[in-house]
Design a protein that fits this description.
By secondary structure, the chain is an alpha/beta fold. The protein is 46% helix and 13% strand. It contains 16 helices and 13 strands. The strands form 4 sheets. Strands 3-2-1-4-5-7-11 form a 7-stranded parallel sheet, sandwiched between helices. The chain has a two-stranded parallel sheet with strand order 6-13. The protein starts with a helix and ends in a 13-residue tail after the last strand. 36% of the residues are buried.
């Protein structure tokens, strides 16, 4: 599809974006403002206590990031009036009915004007509290769709999911929808009743409240409950479990409204737009790179031949924009697209380890004193059993020595012992959480990526 036609589609459009302070939403917002200045309005749903707080979050967490540097250079002093005429922060929360938009006048304005809704609101923590993940990833998707049904001019609903809703699939993973109540292979329960899951959460929370449980206790119980319920139904963690629920809750919209579900794989920093390498905070694989670069990671866990399916954030956004423009006049009302690299440009786990070593050897990170940190070529522990054995040999004896010294010296090493034990337990928990992806044996069909060019600029 020609670039001019893609850009033309968005001319005069009004878009509602949920999860507006998230990584992908920022890239989406910047892209639209940069390439289509004739966009009519962009309503940005932001969790905040009031309008002023939403405006502050928009300024501090979105517009004031380095991502918008090129836009600032392009418009200069005219940027503020340009943004004021296009971008409208909306105080709300997808966890609530009507998206938590209590300003009825603003809510009516959105529902009467919006052409496209992009639902990118999500919590991506693998072991998020079950009540929180349920509220945002599952019920949040349902609330956004209910809101969409009341929008008089809406023509398209785009829901950002994840390719890993398929769980630990083996082989070629197709772009197929979930049936309501569907569970994955290996599930101990054959039917997923989302209403039952809601009741389990509510009952557990009431029980904890009756016990006057601390917030720390509630958080721990809810995190463990999410993992437990996910595994019962065949999913490896709370994140992908609740994202799969969210897809199930997306029922058919109005006859003329398209539903596009995009399922990206592991989203990384930008490839080219607005410039190469933009990211924020330490994301999934970034933490491994930084830990290795600082000399803190001496080994990796996983299958050397497993494929790490990664996709830059700007490629995901470009795919979304093209999909929206392409399917405006298509007869199909529900479209699902994987956005990943495993079929087109597969990267093996062992190759990633070698690439990191080569890069950090030539471009080492610096320590606090400004000296280069020398990295060693790390080994790969190819099974979880070898990982636990490595921990038992190299770390547990030291912790036992600290424990003994602490007892002999009247708790003199209590703080050191507790911290060392906590770090080891944290490493084990992370390895267990990431295990399905470190040993992943699937490859995602990406039919849509064969049809487009990523260079929509």
């Amino acid at each position: 599809m020609e670039e001019s036609k893609i850009l033309q589609y968005f001319e005069g459009k009004t878009i509602l974006i949920t999860g507006a302070t998230g990584f992908l939403a920022k890239i989406f917002l910047e892209k639209v403002l940069r390439v289509q200045p004739k966009i009519k309005k962009l309503f940005l749903l932001i969790r905040a206590v009031d309008k002023r707080s939403a405006e502050l979050r928009l300024h501090d967490e979105v517009l004031n990031t380095g991502l918008f540097g090129i836009l600032k250079a392009k418009y200069g002093a005219d940027l503020s009036p340009f943004l004021l005429s296009k971008v409208i922060p909306v105080c709300g929360d997808v966890s609530y009915e009507n998206l938590g938009i209590f300003d009825s006048k603003l809510r009516d304005e959105i529902s009467q004007e919006v052409d496209i809704i992009v639902n990118s609101a999500a919590t991506t923590k693998f072991d998020e509290r079950y009540d929180v993940a349920m509220g945002i990833n599952a019920l949040g998707a349902m609330h956004v769709q209910k809101f969409a049904r009341n929008c008089s001019t809406i023509e398209m609903f785009v829901h950002v999911s994840t390719a890993y809703v398929h769980g630990s699939s083996v082989g070629i993973v197709p772009e197929k929808p979930f049936r309501m109540g569907e569970t994955l292979d290996g599930a101990e329960i054959s039917y997923l009743d989302i209403n039952t899951e809601k009741k389990i959460v509510e009952e557990r929370l009431r029980g904890l409240e009756a016990q006057n449980a601390t917030e720390l206790k509630i958080k721990s119980v809810m995190r463990n409950l999410g993992i437990e319920r996910a595994k019962l139904h065949g999913w490896p963690n709370t994140y992908v479990f609740t994202k799969a629920m969210g897809e199930m809750l997306l029922e058919k919209l109005k006859e003329n409204v398209k539903l596009i579900i995009v399922r990206p794989t592991i989203i990384t920093s930008t490839y080219k737009e607005p410039f190469s390498g933009w990211t924020e905070s330490i994301r999934t694989l970034d933490s491994i790179f930084v830990g290795y670069g600082k000399g803190k990671i001496k080994f990796f866990v996983g299958d050397p031949d497993s494929i790490l399916d990664m996709i830059p954030g700007d490629m995901v956004v470009n795919s979304m924009l093209v999909a929206m423009a392409m399917h405006t006049n298509q007869p199909s009302h529900r479209l699902i697209y994987h956005i990943g690299s495993s079929r087109r440009n597969p990267l093996k786990y062992a190759d990633m380890k070698w690439l990191m070593y080569r890069y950090l050897t030539k471009n080492p990170l610096l320590d606090t004193g400004g000296k280069p940190i020398k990295v060693e070529e790390a080994k790969i522990l190819e099974t979880m059993a070898s990982f636990h054995r490595y921990i038992a040999i190299h770390y547990l004896p030291f912790i036992q020595m600290l424990k003994l010294a602490n007892m002999i010296l009247c708790n003199h090493f209590e703080h050191v012992h507790v911290n060392a034990r906590r770090r080891v337990n944290h490493s084990i928990r992370l390895a267990e959480l990431y295990k399905p992806y470190l040993f992943f044996q699937g490859m995602y069909v990406s039919t849509f990526l064969n049809l487009i060019s990523f260079n929509v600029s």
